[in-house]
Amino acid sequence: MGEAMNLPLHTAGAVAVITGGASGIGLAAASRLAGHGLRVVLVDLGAERLERARAEILAAAPGAEVLAREAESATRLRSSPSSAR
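and the corresponding structure tokens:
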């Protein structure tokens, strides 16, 4: 079971949108995917939490492309984009 899977979605340069990406499993998945060269979009509630998560991913995967977008609710994103890369 410990083998890495080679799936097409793990292609470097692909985009992964991670909901709940500011903590827990979402953050772990985002970090791992960024480390594999995917461009990552974090979506969650709480701008400060998202920026901390983004900084954590960038520290672990220098040069990664990570965009953080705050959700207003479970169904809407805030209209102002946050920083990328």
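(Above: one complete record from the training split.) The helical segments are 24-35, 47-60.
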